Amino acid sequence: GGATAWDFSSLSFIGTGITTSTGTGFVAVSNVLTIGISHTLNAGSKIWILSGAIAAPFVRTGTFQYSTSTMRFTGNSASVVVNALSGSGGSDGYYNLEIMPSGAVTYALATGTYQVNNNLQIGDGVVAGIVSGTTNDPVVNVSGNLTINTSGTLIESDLVLNVRLSVGGNW
pTM of the prediction? Predict the structure, then answer.
């Protein structure tokens, strides 16, 4: 809680229960963030920085309540997969999603639907990171704004018969 920043190698929420994040400090996880099957994580208004350079820096089998949080993926490996979370109404989606590879790599979006209930930001303005939807053809719904920073690239699904990207705000 509070304004303190928290740094973890790995962070797991397991067992039956609800964990609620409070305060304004960020939470940085350099390997994997796990929400176990019977657990609920309320992310609050924090920025969650997931820098794991592994295939699954965010493992969610429980419930993720996004509140007004920001999930920022920054791993520098092409094997990083950003979870497809399709929920709205407060659970199992994203509020703000920032995909900002810290190396010149391509992140492949997973199969499924990405529901971003506020803003989606691609790239950090410095590193030439690419986010691609061509391999798994996900649906990406953004209720707010889509920002692709100077160094970022978003390659949408190559399925031509279906609308795979919708943006409710500006882009």
Answer: 0.93
